[in-house]
Write a structure and sequence with these properties.
The protein is of the alpha+beta class and 368 residues long. The chain folds into 2 domains: 4-233, Rossmann fold (3-Layer(aba) Sandwich); 234-361, OB fold (Dihydrolipoamide Acetyltransferase, E2P), CATH 2.40.50.140. The chain has 8 helices and 20 strands. The chain has helices spanning 47-55, 97-107, 112-125, 141-153, 171-188, 199-205, 223-228, 233-238; strands at 9-18, 21-31, 36-40, 62-67, 70-71, 82-86, 159-163, 192-196, 208-213, 216-221, 243-253, 256-261, 266-271, 280-285, 291-292, 301-313, 316-323, 328-334, 347-352, 357-361. The strands form 4 sheets. Strands 6-7-8-3-9-10 form a 6-stranded mixed sheet, with helices on both faces. A 5-stranded mixed β-barrel has the order 11-12-13-20-14. Helix 5 links the parallel strand 7 (159-163) and strand 8. This is Spermidine/putrescine import ATP-binding protein PotA.
Amino acid sequence: MLTSENFKLQIRNARKTYGPVIALENTSLEMRQGEFLTLLGPSGSGKSTLLMAIAGLNNPDSGAVWIDGKLATYLPPSQRDIGMVFQNYALFPHMTIFDNVAFPLRMRKVDAAAIKSRVAAVLETVQLGHVAQRFPRELSGGQQQRIALARCFVYEPSIILMDEPLGALDKKLRDALQLEIKHLHEKMGMTVLYVTHDQEEAMVMSDRICLMNHAAIEQIGTPQDLYFRPKTVFAADFLGESNLIDTVVSEIEGERIKVTATNGSTVCGHAQATFRVGESAIAMVRPESVRLLRADEAEENQVQASVKEIILSGPVIKCYVELAGGAEMKLTQLTSGPVHGLAKGQKVRLGWSADRTVVLANKRELAS
């Protein structure tokens, strides 16, 4: 049986309200040593409220927070052995980089020789050993964020909390730092709880993703779990692009299910809920799993469509089509050269595998 001692972090039924507004609703969550877990979701979904409860900056109204097997719900932040990295870096402008990174060690009364050694080691880890005597204003935004990470890593906290640390950076630098943080996590074995609203960031960096919506956990699992086997329409729509087809259940064989679209086409897939024959459902397939079929090709799921739009967006070609009855679908394929033999209004057949089709309960809440 798993107990609090088996987890680095455990949240049990945490709830937080502000007057009539529910900011967090009976949320439970566990993390193991060395795990990189991302809280992902739109604004107002509860992810920052949960992070603040863990940090001790905003105590829950009810529920419990356990850190390293010890009850920490109402402990002050200084007694939780937690490090935090924010979007705004929070570096001291009047201190050198060395002194910024050394600050948490000096606050903990670490001796001077150990401080010198540990600061030098962590600056080399983030590849900024050469800037030790500079001031924050002399560094780029990306370098400052790496120093903020180094300052957090240097005292080896039990858990590192990161609240949208890359949000202020441009895309190219953000992409580079995503991989850098991922590699640092792997190298140092840190336990990281990361908050973002950026789905790509969560997919790239995380061991697991906790998708939040309406102050509660919508789904938690590996990036592959959430992408290929979403459990709700919201999860399917929030992560990546998806085709969502209105259907009615026509046949059930265990987890395998056959549904009929409003235009009469049948689609086979895997059920992510409990269904009855005749019940409405949503069939989901990712655009990259759909392909144009040649005349001599067949696929388990296939539909007739008319091309509406063809868009070249660099590495991929996006094709938007309309099915009989007016429903729309999209497919994407890697760009291998100029688009030939495809034009607006052209009749095509689309096909995709039943293994790439997920049938969801018909609760059409889309990500905003």
